[in-house]
Amino acid sequence: MQQQEWKFGAHQIRHEAPDLVVAVFSGMLNLEDMKRAVEIYGQVAKSGGYYMIADIGNSQLQAEARRYLSDNSKAEWFKGCVYVGADMVQQTFGKVISLGMFLTGKSEFKTEFVKTMAEAHAWVEQQRRANLRKSG
């Protein structure tokens, strides 16, 4: 799958080959926004698992959107997730999602919280190198 980009409302998601999805959320995410995001996540996963960078520092997630994300995301879609700019509430929710992914059968679900996009990209590269060492 070549790089693809989706925009809906004030939000943007892009797939960067081979295995990265970058989502930038701005403002309030409602249920319809989250349904679209989860649909995109699943569509990209048809080409294989990927790392997710989610820039959530300028966003808020409505409760029903949060539930939808928890109930409809699949652990096998993700190699790991790094959140950029998360406040304490968002970090707590990110940890709950990770625990849920772990409990659905994934042996581990790596989650990280960073302040900048550069740190997020560095984390993904570090994970890729670690996975190469494990498989090599």
Describe the protein in words:
With 136 residues, the protein is α/β, with parallel strands linked by helices. The protein has one domain: STAS domain (Transcription Regulator spoIIAA, 2-Layer Sandwich), CATH 3.30.750. It is built from four helices and six strands, in the order βββαβαβαβα. It has helices spanning 31-45, 63-72, 88-103, 117-135, and strands spanning 4-8, 11-16, 20-29, 50-61, 78-84, 111-114. Strands 1-2-3-4-5-6 form a six-stranded mixed sheet, with helices on both faces. Helix 3 links the parallel strand 5 (78-84) and strand 6. The model has no long low-confidence stretch (mean pLDDT 88). It comes from Myxococcus llanfairpwllgwyngyllgogerychwyrndrobwllllantysiliogogogochensis. This is STAS/SEC14 domain-containing protein.
The percent range for strand residues is 25-35%
Largest sheet strand order? 1-2-3-4-5-6
Report the order of strands and helices. EEEHEHEHEH
The coarse silhouette is globular
Reported for the largest beta sheet, the result is: 6 strands, mixed
Structural class: alpha/beta
Reported by name, the CATH topology is Transcription Regulator spoIIAA
Show unreliable segments.
none
Mean pLDDT: 88
CATH architecture: 2-Layer Sandwich
State the CATH superfamily name: STAS domain
| N-to-C span | 25 Å
Counted up, domains total 1
Number of H- or I-type helical stretches: 4
Organism: Myxococcus llanfairpwllgwyngyllgogerychwyrndrobwllllantysiliogogogochensis
Protein name: STAS/SEC14 domain-containing protein
